[in-house]
Amino acid sequence: FDEIGKGDVRVFVNFQPFYKALLAMITEAQKDLEDSVDNKNEETAGGLLGLISPQKILTALGLDGLESFALQVDVDKRGLEMGFGIFVSKRKGLLQLLPKQADSVSLVPLIPRNVSSASIMRFDLGLFWDTLLEILHEVNPNLTPLINLQLGLIEKKAGVTLRKDVLGSLGTEVFTFSEDISSLITDLKPKGD
Questions:
Q1: Backbone angles phi, psi at 115, to 5 degrees
Q2: How many CB atoms lie within 10 A of CB 135?
Q3: Over the chain (193 residues), what is each successive 10-residue block's mean pLDDT?
Q4: Are 42 and 120 in contact, with CB atoms under 8 Å apart?
């Protein structure tokens, strides 16, 4: 709890029991599905189940490295503030996109008045494409050459590279704002009500 601060509300979740239960559910469902397949038809029996299993997908995403997560919420007259911490044992899959250092995140210097919420997070978007390809390769090695070929054709036609020009220029900090839509809702009410 030291990492997320002292909030009005604090939640800590140990993810490993959930992950093990999810794997057990998937394994049982997959066994039931395989039992229901007509074993006489080899093409149907093999199908996608032999190529891409849910377990492969979860492992490739790196969810087996997620140990726990914590949330703290503070409520005061200024509004609601939330902090979120993710604790990992191995940085693999999507978890390798999270920053390694525990540097504090810079607050946005100016938050417009008409927003109802703002958020700041760290996520290395420059590594996103390479990480996505690693995940797909682990799920099924035949997918990555197809994707690289298609992406190469698209990049050549567009004259822009996804990895360098788009994702590489985005950096590691992501800021989001949500507009307050209450004024839109009142404008939609019929006059005279």
A1: -100, 145
A2: 21
A3: 67 90 87 66 48 80 89 81 83 82 67 75 78 88 87 89 80 76 57 58
A4: no
Report the alpha-carbon distance of residue 77 to residue 73 in Å, rounded: 14
- Of the candidates 64, 70, 78, 54, the one whose C-alpha atom is nearest the C-alpha of residue 18 is 64
**Chain segment 106-121, per-residue pLDDT in tens:** 666 677 777 777 777 7
pTM: 0.63
How far is residue 87's CA from residue 94's CA, in Å, rounded to a whole number?
A: 13
In terms of residues, how long is the chain?
193
Sort strands 115-122 and 66-76 into parallel, antiparallel or unpaired: unpaired
- Going by C-alpha positions, the residue among 136, 168, 164, 133 that lies closest to residue 52 is 136
Count CB-CB contacts under 10 A for residue 119.
Answer: 13
Q: Side chain identity at 136, as an amino acid letter? A: L
For strands 173-179 and 115-122, give the pairing.
Answer: antiparallel
At 28-61, the pLDDT tens digits run: 887 777 777 655 454 444 444 456 778 888 888 9
